Amino acid sequence: MCLAVPMRIQEIRPDGMGIGELAGTRHEVDLSLVKAPGVGDYVIVHAGYAIEKLDENEAGERLALFKELADSWQVHSP
Amino acid sequence: MKYVDSFRDPAIAAPLCDRLKTRGAALAARGGRARIMEVCGSHTMAVGRHGIRQLLPENVTLISGPGCPVCVTAPGYIDAAIALARRGVTIATFGDMLHVPGSEGTLGECRSGGASVEVCYSPRSARDLALARPDREVVFLAIGFETTIAPVVSLVDLALREHIGNLSLLTAFKLVPPALRAVLDDPEIQVDAFLCPAHVSAIIGPRTYEPFARDFRKPCVIAGFEPLDILFGLCAILDQMVEGRASVENLYERVVHEDGNPIARALMDRYLRPVAARWRGLGQLPDSGLMLRDEFVRYDAEKRFDVPVGPGRESPGCLCGEVIKGKRSPLECPLFAQRCTPTDPVGPCMVSSEGTCSAYYKYERRMRA
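^ inputs. structure came back:
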């Protein structure tokens, strides 16, 4: 039940509600639980609420690290 | 889908599987085995969907933990919700709760009998229902772990700000760390390490797991729900075990920050206080739940309508309680895939799409032979 999906904020309304985009579809998202949300930010959405921002730099670094480790293990495995 | 597909890259997964095997062998060389509990139901589903269990070396076992909020909801809670529905209250709920068996039946059956039971994707829909029908009382079934609690309790915040008088919560919120402690305190459950939940951790932060690493010497690794996240998480656990270490590692930094989500926690703290909670399988655990503070009692459906939540009666023969604790696999239950199926579930672990039995029914049944 704790499944949540990454959405990109397309629009923030004056009442603080946002519109998130997921695979080409638009969804209403409550942004009240994240700090300083901005249009263009990625957020993790659970039950209609953004519960946290998704840090694009961290995502890129983690992926690069995964690739690097995988490469090194490939070379060294018997 | 950005930030999903890239974490499913098979070119990276292949050497990872080799790595798991060599680390498993290194552990076996020291006479060791790893019993790793994947705490969260979303991990259980992802492990099944991506066939990860089949990739593990023989001495590495994944055990599904108590991390499905629907599954751990005690039957007495369903009984109370049914009693409310029969009294003419509109029940608003996440869909999975419709089919969870109480002592006598389900909310779904109650709805077929004419009761007003509305399924909501978001708690906000309950507020919309209450606004649309000011003549009716609306009760939201407030279940969930840390991930879900702040979204649900924000309903009270909305009700206060918008002066909505006909909305309340039947609370059965649960906290993950006390459940992990209960698992470790039970001598019959042998767990060597935790694959910690992704989105619960986004709220509570990695530091919460430190006592499990420090005092119980159990490696705790936070990983996302994509296959690469899980495979790397398992590698990190095996690394720690091979090297004789036990620490908290956060491999999901793209979402889980050092101090979790303080905004969500402040909201929870404003409206809720700790309470002993009853878990299916684990029984009553002190301070393992949250209930509304006394000053918000008018939003507490249990008190407002005087429907005390008792223990209730679990379905006879159902092993859900044992499955939730990681003591038994669904494959060991005589009802599994026989009398108990997703279309006609006997226990809650078969009801919820993230329940262990449901995940095994969908993905792991062939392992039975």
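Chain B has a mean pLDDT of 94. Residues 10-29 of chain B form the longest helix (20 residues).
thumbs up if we can close this ticket
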